[in-house]
Structures are given as structure tokens and as C-alpha cells.
Design goal:
The protein is built from seven helices and two strands, in the order αααββαααα. The protein is mostly helical.
Length: 171
Amino acid sequence: ARKYLERRLAIMMGGRAAELLIFEEETSGAGQDIKVATETARRMVAQWGMSKLGPIHMDQTQDMVFLGKEIATQREVSESTAQKVDAEIANLVLGASDQAFAILKAREQALHGLAVALLERETLDGNEIDEVLRSNGAVPEPEDAIRKVVGLERVRGQGQAQGQGQGQEQG
């Protein structure tokens, strides 16, 4: 679902947001996350119709292969449409980046708490992370926080009565 993917984009942009919040500069450390976020946003817009451009499949190029080598590409959309697709992709990724920054800014104390805990213990398991977050006021109730992040805001088991599995978003 779109909301789930938008949340995933924000998670992917969290590393870059943390760099900007803490170090006030960008590094290459978030490069792979940015690449995956951009690819996901491109699929949302051009393949899955999750944008204001509508439910249309608009892959921008089609590789033409001869003897295993790419020899040319053929554009399937106009230059104007390609620009609109690129703008939608940028809006999704930049919006996710802004959302990640806002989340981290609001929970900066917890971010610092995690850094201190990692410096002290080097590794943390899920329970230790939850404890650091709770002690810094970042997570009100563990299960509610997890459900909100993954987009499952309804009560567990409710969807099963309707024939849906636990791992699926309802709505």
C-alpha cells in the first residue's frame, strides 16, 4: 500500500537525515539507501501508479538488446511526461527525507541515547534498543510503535476474522 511504502522511504532516508541533524553535512554513507529509496519511488510512480499522474504504467525506457548487449533504448513516454515522473519521484524522496529529519529531530535525545549505549556496549539487541528509546521518551508502547512504523494501526487479529493474514495492512 502507498502509506506503507512512504513509511519505508522515510526509514531509508533516516541515515541521511541523521547525518544532517548530527553532523550538519552529507557523506557518502547513505548512498545505497538513497539509491534504493529512489528506485522504490520510481516504481511507485512509473509502475504502480501511486502518484498524481494516475494509475498508468510509465516505464521511461525499454532496453533493446542484441546478442546480450544493450545497443539502444527506446523512450516510451514524452519528454514532458518524463519530467513529470522525475518530479513526482523527487517529491516522494524529498518528502521522505523531510519526514525522517522531523522524526529524528523530535527524538534527538533518544538518538543521542542510542549512540551512547552503542559506545558503551558496541551491540544492542532489540530489547536493549527498546529500553533506550523508552527511557528517552521516544516509544510510548512497544507494540503500538511497531504497528505505526509498518502501517498496521489496527488491533491484531481483527483482519484474520475477515480472511486477511497478520502481516497485511488493512484499510
